[in-house]
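Incident log, structure service

09:12 report received: a user says their structure output differs between two submissions of the same chain.
09:20 pulled the input from the user's history:
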Amino acid sequence: MYKISADGKTMLGYNHDAWKVSAAIWFVNARNRNEFGACFSGSRKIGPNKFAPSSGMNEEGLAFSRLAAYHPNKEGLNIGKKQIANKDDFLTNILHECRNIEEVEKYYELYDQSIFIEEVIFYTDKSGNYLIVEPYQVIKGNNPTYVLANFCPSLTSNQNARKMKRYRDGEDYIQSNSPIASVDYCRTLSDTMSVCRSRNGDGTLLTSIFDTHDGLINLYFYHAYDTTVQFNISEELAKGNHSINIPEIFPINAEYQRLLEYKTPVTEPKLFIYFAGIGFLMMAFALLFFFSYIKKRTKVKFNSLKLIFAGMNLLLFFYLFTLARNIPIYYFDAPYEHYSSKLISLASYSPFLLLFILMPLSYYTYHYVKKNSKSILIKSALVVNSAIYLLLLIAFGYWGLFNILH
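09:34 re-ran on a clean worker, output below:
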């Protein structure tokens, strides 16, 4: 995100990078005479027809955006402050109850904001002043331009921040092009900072540009910057409380259609259930193979084959668990490198290991079945387990987990 103040006007631009297929903008009037009407945008569903606000602006020109960011836990720094029961309601209430940065700062002083341990939140208003909210402190500023990405400024030097390409691109653009508080300037800057990854065309789902002076919101959908839809907050609030499904108000986008058709266990609940069942079935087979190996250690030929299946099943069970909890694996380059876990990074080589050993396993499984006339249960389990491996290889190929050429 970025903030531009020039010629008596302040603009806030926000790129919402997400793997969601839905996005909405909604307008909510003041709930009483002491509050302000506001608009919000977001893509993460938190209930029926309800989304978590990722950015927004109120009638007074107070605007905000929230970004994912790492901050270590620190105990005992917010003792005695009020607890925030719900992050999304809290952020919504601020836009309804505050008119400027000073009021936002006083609002946060009452609360333990460590609930935002994985976020950094940026506020600005018509004056061009801004407030950066971290889990344990707030930072005020009044620079005419400001760029922020997925980091906490108090913990990150500019040198380290510039390792993030989208941040570096934004900072360089502002330094090379005199800031202008206009939609055209902000659109180009947003495009410069946007993400369109090679896999599935994924990246910036929604760009919001807030004109805090005139109360205008310009939206760009799925990193397509040739089309915008503009809203006037006063005109929209006059229509009453309402929500708009953003994909429906933009032309058909081929890359977005591809995202819609791309299915993963994270985005498709039924697919998650299927793969959870496969994972637990492999665990059951692993136990069966292990105890059968112990029981018949010297009585059957190719008995050690059971240990190989058991070990591979344990590894793949962990990998499926990792796939269920780390959605970036489906979109970032393969093999996936986790920012902090070497174990997850190593697990991303599991598809290659399975591909490498499937043929030898199939060969020895065939001979095990042929040489051992008894143990119908074990033979059937080995055959079914081999079929599961083939199914997983097809799924891994569909998700691009073998695509090592970028």
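09:41 both user submissions now match this output. Likely a transient worker issue. Closing.
09:42 reviewer note: The longest strand covers residues 9-17. Residues 269-295 form the longest helix (27 residues).
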